[in-house]
Amino acid sequence: MIRRIITLLTLLVVISSCKAQGNNNIKQNKTLERTTERFDTSTYYMERQGHEYQFEHYLRGKVRQFGGDNGSNYIEYARKDNSLFGTCKEYYNKTGTLKLVGKYYYNRFNAGIWKEYDENGYLIDEYDQDAPYKNYPWEKVEKFVKEELKLDLFDKNVSIRRYVSDKTNIPVWIIHYKVGSNIVSIKINANTGEIIKKGTNPIIK
């Protein structure tokens, strides 16, 4: 009899432990970041011309949307005329829910924190696009271009890119700008801030 009572008590402890664990998981899921943002497919298909839809938004500036054909995801770029950076978004084709969102430099590289969500809207990952360039961040590049090179970043003849070299694993900034009939290229080591290479080449017509 005593053995049966002990067995029953043990089962009750196990069951209550499982319930408590299940409740904790539910609480954790409820604290996860979630987005309810969806792509406006009805307006998109009704208003688009050709394969894209462009419009002006009072908060986001010029908006360009495309995609959705043959099961592809929807893509949106939005940027104000007086801003160097805009917002890029990707939406799932089937559900229209937000998949990816982040900031981009208009000339163009991804910047800042990018967030990725699953089809139910839950945050599944974050990417810090600026991490490799923290020793020589955008602010220093901007200052160099404006104060040292005396260039206008909104000039279409000025282009800035960045990448991590496959060969050396060194993050670099690349600045291109037009001088007369030539293109000047400046390559900066983002770890040290040193100019690795500077050259001038004629524009090939």
List the helices and strands and how they pair.
Elements: H1 2-31, H2 41-47, E1 52-57, E2 61-67, E3 74-79, E4 85-91, E5 98-105, E6 109-117, E7 123-128, H3 138-148, E8 158-164, E9 171-179, E10 182-189, E11 195-202
What does this protein structure show overall?
- The chain is of the alpha+beta class and 205 residues long.
- It is built from 3 helices and 11 strands; from the N terminus they run H-H-E-E-E-E-E-E-E-H-E-E-E-E.
- A hairpin with a 5-residue loop joins strand 3 (74-79) and strand 4.
- It is globular.
- 12% of the residues are buried.
Shape: globular
The biggest sheet amounts to: 7 strands, antiparallel
Low-confidence stretches: 1-31
Roughly what fraction of the amino acids lie in strands?
Answer: 35-45%
Average pLDDT taken over every residue: 87
- Helix percent band: 10-25%
Q: How many helical stretches?
A: 3
Sheet/helix structural class: alpha+beta
Q: CA-to-CA gap between the ends?
A: 97 Å
Q: Give the radius of gyration.
A: 26 Å
Give, in spatial order, the strands making up the sheet with the most strands.
1-2-3-4-5-6-7
Number of DSSP-assigned strands = 11
Summarize the helix and strand pattern as letters.
HHEEEEEEEHEEEE
